[in-house]
Amino acid sequence: MKTSSKPFHNYGKSKTCPNLLIKGLPYVFTSLFLASILSFFFFLYSPNSLILVPKQGHDIIENPSQKQEHQHANTSTLPPWKSHKEEKTCDLFKGHWIRSIRDSSYYTNSSCTTIPDSKNCFKHGRMDNDFLNWKWKPDQCDLPMFDPRIFLQMVRGKKLAFIGDSVARNHMDSLLCLLSQEETPQDIYKDSEDRYRKFYFPKYDFNLIMVWSRFLVQGEERMVNGTGTGIFDLQLDKADEDWANVLHELDYAIISAAHWFFRLIYLHEGGKLVGCIYCNEPNVKNYDVDMALSLVFKTSLKHINNCKECEKGKLLTILRTFAPAHFENGVWNTGGHCNRTSPKNEGDVDFGAFEWKLRNVQMEEFENAKSEGKTRFKVVDVTRAMMMRPDGHPGEHWGNKWMKGYNDCTHWCLPGAIDVWNELLLATLQREG
Ligand SMILES: *[C@@H]1O[C@H](CO)[C@@H](O)[C@H](O)[C@H]1NC(C)=O
Ligand SMILES: *[C@@H]1O[C@H](CO)[C@@H](O)[C@H](O)[C@H]1NC(C)=O
Ligand SMILES: *[C@@H]1O[C@H](CO)[C@@H](O)[C@H](O)[C@H]1NC(C)=O
Ligand SMILES: *[C@@H]1O[C@H](CO)[C@@H](O)[C@H](O)[C@H]1NC(C)=O
């Protein structure tokens, strides 16, 4: 845990920001509006701790000249994984970005009507589009193009839920766009805060659900006079009922978490305070974010392994690993930006960084849970690929009309680099058979 203390130094600086933010906003806004803006920025400022050291000069991107031509022109018509045996076992998550031979976005902001406004980067003035022209190339095999028909046939009659925060939602929104090119989904449920969503694809009898769970375990925000304080209490040993109670209905659960842990949080076990993140109180044990995160994943995966109501063999759980933010030259509220227009080289990515450590604790808990052999677990390990994609974020192009000057370097533009998560998801589901 020693090496991880450094990234936290930013927190002291950022801790006061929510107040500055309130003072800086025009008086007329309702507290509800404030709350939603704040929760967005509480979320956004989390990656303060995760800033990569800015690299000087241009990134030299590997640009294979001949090899790239063989890719995907006809891949989606081939029976995936049938042609090459090694493709069943190759590591999909270790590779590099290569230029694709065509405009590789699967959809546009007119062919997909469900892109959330804040991810519709082109609508909000993003001028460069070269970030769409990259394809993830695993070192030992090819990653097939996303074929919505193959995906929908695989999940026919099934129920799939994304369980997590707004980055999980970003993943789901990418999948919605990809699938909508084959069938327009029905929007069947939306809560008042647009956090729980349900979509239905009638032709394939497929249910796609977003279950909002920022921490995966039970977590409550401390309120003062009806206003959120941004301080949370987590029950490290209790899975969040919002997803735990629907688990038995699901065929696929895609879980993820991390970005909400970079804040003042009190940690409880068996109803007793056992420590905190960032509280700096003399008699309270300090937990680093990765330590807390590993306990949260332990509890969550254990809950899945021991699910009593779950029909044997029905559920496939997929852990989506940590997706890094890319603020450079500052943090979200000090002018940090992310305006690169092309990927980074693998050699320019720091695998000693805290992002990678978060991914590793998630992988560790995943391996432990899987080795119990009680239910099926798979991983979609996006961290390495996304550490190379500082060009994939909205930056200033997220429709931030109230918050000019603040950049979103946490979420991902649609269409964009995040679409690869669903190529990886499909390939992973296909391997599972
Ligand atoms: C792709 O398939 C089509 C017909 O199925 C064929 O005409 C074309 O030559 C193929 N392209 C490549 C690059 O193999
Ligand atoms: C799509 O993006 C273009 C810019 O590329 C923008 O002019 C247009 O308003 C956007 N359309 C929608 C429906 O968001
Ligand atoms: C909460 O409201 C009460 C009554 O309006 C007030 O006296 C108190 O100072 C408030 N507490 C905080 C922390 O704002
Ligand atoms: C990125 O933004 C920074 C700060 O606004 C600016 O100094 C820099 O020139 C920008 N870079 C590009 C490539 O636009």
From TrEMBL:
<comment type="similarity">
    <text>Belongs to the PC-esterase family. TBL subfamily.</text>
</comment>
<dbReference type="Pfam" id="PF14416">
    <property type="entry name" value="PMR5N"/>
</dbReference>
<dbReference type="GO" id="GO:0005794">
    <property type="term" value="C:Golgi apparatus"/>
</dbReference>
<keyword id="KW-0472">Membrane</keyword>
<feature type="domain" description="Trichome birefringence-like C-terminal">
    <location>
        <begin position="143"/>
        <end position="427"/>
    </location>
</feature>
<protein>
    <submittedName>
        <fullName>Protein ALTERED XYLOGLUCAN 4-like</fullName>
    </submittedName>
</protein>
<dbReference type="InterPro" id="IPR026057">
    <property type="entry name" value="TBL_C"/>
</dbReference>
<dbReference type="GO" id="GO:0016020">
    <property type="term" value="C:membrane"/>
</dbReference>
<dbReference type="InterPro" id="IPR025846">
    <property type="entry name" value="TBL_N"/>
</dbReference>
<keyword id="KW-1133">Transmembrane helix</keyword>
<feature type="transmembrane region" description="Helical">
    <location>
        <begin position="20"/>
        <end position="45"/>
    </location>
</feature>
<dbReference type="GO" id="GO:0016413">
    <property type="term" value="F:O-acetyltransferase activity"/>
</dbReference>
<keyword id="KW-0812">Transmembrane</keyword>
<dbReference type="InterPro" id="IPR029962">
    <property type="entry name" value="TBL"/>
</dbReference>
<keyword id="KW-0735">Signal-anchor</keyword>
<feature type="region of interest" description="Disordered">
    <location>
        <begin position="64"/>
        <end position="83"/>
    </location>
</feature>
<dbReference type="Pfam" id="PF13839">
    <property type="entry name" value="PC-Esterase"/>
</dbReference>
<feature type="domain" description="Trichome birefringence-like N-terminal">
    <location>
        <begin position="89"/>
        <end position="142"/>
    </location>
</feature>
